């Protein structure tokens, strides 16, 4: 699969739910449809049988778990040029971890359930243009449902709501909530703080229109992965500062939280896959107007005023340059008096969260996130 995800592929990807997230890159807004695949899985464990890496653990990740390594080997096999060596437009054409996951699903005949959500698209105005939202609504239940505003990853430069379709859908299904997935504008076409402002505009829209989409306006949470984790936290900060309703909870999955690229995890996992230190430098340069802006508290969250933020769940991956970012942010939030619950998953890399079809830790992480959200919603 290359740049454009067609409807049938999105259906399979979306139908995987919490089986596989973070996928192919596309600026095309597509509505998912039902799709089923009838093949065998190991129903006792919920894991596919026989997925083993072809070679030894990579030098950059000696503690990597076999299932995670299988995904990375598949991703590397596509032979794409390094992201940091490309223009943003060309980098968006590279294969992604979902290509690897979906390839493994196909090769190993892993069953993909039909979606349990309906989807709809919505264009909303923002300063300087418009952005697209994809709204996922559970098929079961009558509502009003709690609402999750979801922000995808990609370093503010690559990826979109198609890339993270299954993450958004999995959250909707497991938490029993409407998910509003936000296609904020990307850099370098839209420099800092465009993505941050778009993200807050989408949250404001959701507050005002929750009832109209069968949502409960008093039960709205924010969730984000990687750059999206940074955006979700900023939405909470902006809501506090503008004195509008705070999210009832925020889930930050391996968030970008500071600008120092010489932390313990940046050094240890400088050459990791699918995210490494050169890529993070490339992302930063593409998003900011000048490198000094990387220290702005909106990007370096550890320097922000974090008091009065909603209860927060932080999920980190061991083999990830951003591992220290997440842990530093957890400590800063706690010091600011915020209730924090966090888990670090060993043996896995950045982007593991959506890979439950082949990575057991992902299945656990998704269930953990959903449970935290349900508690916040009073479910």
TrEMBL record:
Residues 23-54 are annotated as: Disordered. One of its GO terms (biological process) is triglyceride catabolic process. GO terms for molecular function: sterol ester esterase activity; triacylglycerol lipase activity. Residues 1-26 form the signal peptide. Coiled coil: none annotated. This is Acetyl esterase/lipase. It comes from the Bacteria. Keywords: Signal. The lineage of its organism: Bacteria, Pseudomonadati, Bacteroidota, Sphingobacteriia, Sphingobacteriales. InterPro entries: AB_hydrolase_3 (IPR013094), AB_hydrolase_fold (IPR029058). SUPFAM superfamilies: alpha/beta-Hydrolases. GO terms for cellular component: cytosol. Residues 26-54 have a biased composition (Low complexity). Residues 148-353 form the Alpha/beta hydrolase fold-3 domain.
């Amino acid at each position: 699969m290359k740049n454009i995800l067609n409807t049938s592929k999105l259906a399979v990807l979306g139908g995987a739910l919490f089986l596989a997230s973070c996928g192919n890159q596309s600026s095309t807004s597509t509505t998912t449809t039902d799709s089923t695949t009838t093949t065998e899985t190991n129903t006792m464990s919920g894991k596919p049988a026989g997925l083993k890496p072809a070679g030894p653990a990579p030098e950059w990740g000696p503690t990597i778990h076999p299932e995670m390594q299988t995904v990375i080997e598949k991703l590397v096999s596509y032979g794409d040029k390094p992201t940091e060596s490309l223009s943003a437009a060309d980098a968006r054409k590279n294969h992604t971890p979902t290509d690897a996951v979906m390839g493994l699903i196909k090769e190993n005949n892993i069953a993909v359930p039909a979606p349990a959500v309906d989807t709809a698209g919505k264009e909303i105005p923002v300063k300087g243009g418009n952005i697209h939202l994809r709204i996922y609504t559970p098929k079961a239940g009558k509502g009003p449902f709690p609402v999750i505003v979801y922000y995808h990853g990609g370093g503010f430069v690559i990826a979109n709501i198609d890339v993270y379709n299954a993450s958004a859908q999995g959250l909707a299904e497991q938490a029993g909530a409407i998910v509003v997935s936000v296609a904020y504008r990307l850099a370098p076409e839209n420099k800092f703080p465009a993505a941050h402002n778009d993200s807050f505009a989408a949250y404001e829209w959701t507050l005002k229109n929750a009832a109209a989409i069968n949502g409960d306006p008093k039960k709205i949470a924010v969730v984000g992965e990687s750059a999206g984790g940074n955006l979700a936290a900023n939405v909470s900060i902006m809501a506090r500062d503008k004195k509008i309703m705070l999210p009832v909870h925020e889930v930050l999955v391996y968030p970008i939280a500071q600008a120092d690229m010489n932390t313990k995890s940046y050094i240890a996992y400088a050459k990791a896959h699918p995210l490494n230190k050169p890529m993070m430098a490339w992302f930063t340069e593409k998003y900011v107007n000048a490198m000094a802006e990387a220290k702005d508290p909106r990007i370096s969250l550890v320097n922000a005023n974090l008091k009065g933020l909603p209860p927060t769940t932080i999920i980190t991956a061991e083999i990830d340059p951003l591992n220290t970012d997440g842990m530093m942010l957890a400590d800063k939030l706690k010091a600011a008096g915020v209730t924090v619950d966090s888990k670090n998953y060993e043996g896995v890399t950045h982007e593991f969260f959506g890979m439950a079809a082949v990575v057991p830790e992902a299945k656990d992480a998704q269930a953990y996130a959903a449970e935290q959200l349900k508690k916040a919603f009073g479910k």
